Amino acid sequence: MKKYGLGVDIGATNLRVTIGSETGEMLAKLIEETDRSRDPTAISRQISRIIRSLCRSLNLNVEEMVGIGIGSIGPLNLKRGGIEQPANIPGVGFIPIVKPLEEEFKLPVVLLNDCVAAVVGEKFYGDGKTVENLIYITISTGIGAGVYVNGNLLLGKDGNAHEIGHIVIDFDGRLICGCGKRGHWEAYCSGRNIPNYVRYLVENNLITGFEKSLPYKLTRGDWSKISAKMIYDSAKQADRFSLEVVKRIGVLNAIGFASVVDVYDPELITVGGSVALHNSELVIPFILQHIGEYSINRVPDIKLTTLKDDIVLHGAVAAAFNPPEVYYKLVK
Ligand SMILES: [Zn+2]
How far is CA 71 from CA 74, 147, 149, in A? Predict the structure, then answer.
């Protein structure tokens, strides 16, 4: 009897695999560093090996699994069933995922963007269970979202309806995003780009007191060494400069959230990703404080996800049990 689902979270750093029940309980979980070699078959082979070892350790057969759900870093090519030249693994080209796993395990495989998988996890196993209009937003290395509107998971024409990190929040385009374009939300507020924003604020005298700040001391004035973590940690120690930076990031996040609220009209937004999860008291309150200044739609509940770091993995298991119809429409 098919009782369990396999869930896979392909991250730029870590690869996580779990076996879960339909109610969302994880029987076991294995985490390894993602194989970032140039061999395009490396990741699917790594997933296969971990699945086999998990099954062995739990004394389960692959035949007892309903399928394999995967949440992955992008960019995904859903029609080809893999990852297309990920920026995080330079020089690798296309990484096939769906076909090799389907062939090896003879199970259905569902491949979703990690933020999309996460919102599926929230819908089935988290605070999104009772709502039909739900958004999950991750503030991490980048910024992204998964969206349900009227109970429908949104994928878009190429499966990229989650790319909210590239909403333009600055029409003057002062900072360049990792994608190469200007003025995008994540160019200012993502973990990777917060240091750029800090340098911009200091260089343009939009914020003062850098020379007396904790980050200045910690980096000995070498601001190429500033990190998002350093800014949030210093703000937690009441460093005035860092608190001011965190506040400004909060206003920009509120602008991003307001755009999302006005477009999708959600009842609930849950927030995750390392920057938000580790600094929730410095992230969520500023969004709540300022979002009403920018959104026209009724402001929804906005709170930290209770599924934490495992949200993508939960979503992957949920997708194995409940493959989204829209996914099959898109890949066929
Ligand atoms: Zn961008």
Answer: 9, 15, 20
